[in-house]
Amino acid sequence: YAPSLASNAQAGVGHWREADIVALLRTGTAPGATVQGPMAEVVRGSTQHLSQADLQAMAVYLKDLPGHTAADKAGSPATTAPAEPPAKAANLPPAGRGAKLYEQHCAQCHGRAGEGVPGAYVPLAGNRAVTLPVATNLAQTVMHGGFAPATAGNPRPYGMPPFLLVLDDADIAAVLSFIRSSWGNRAGPVTELDVGQVRSATRR
Prior knowledge:
By secondary structure, the chain is mainly α. It is about 40% helix and about 5% strand. A hairpin with a 2-residue loop joins strand 1 (about 30) and strand 2. The relative contact order is 0.17.
């Protein structure tokens, strides 16, 4: 799922500092952000090799995309506020199960309060990638792991191991629902069916 670059609630960077956009394109990491998946390939094979002038020009262009307001462009850090509360879903996983799974498998890296570790593991609290309406990317990351590109500016990036053979669909739904509704995050639950559809799609 490719979120919109014209929306700061999704992947837009109108509210980022230009220096943070340049850093993300050059190294694959910026304060509170790391590229993964196809974007990691773009950084590894392309943007890390661009000149400073070209990276700066891209940053200016991305900040000026339609949809960004003057307040967005003022230059705040590369973070975002939690999403608005969604409508309640009837098939929310059992309370407590997701918290227990998070404690067992996630808290060591991402922190007990989703605070992450600067320079290593991104925070989950207030992370717009966590609160997107579509949770496909989250499910894929838990199943297959998440790996930033190795770049000249970040030659030994931290990564996340895959849990495809460790957690079943119900487990993944529970832990993602917990993450999406904790520490100020306000996004809808993920169902076992949602995860199963992602798993089936990646088998093709």
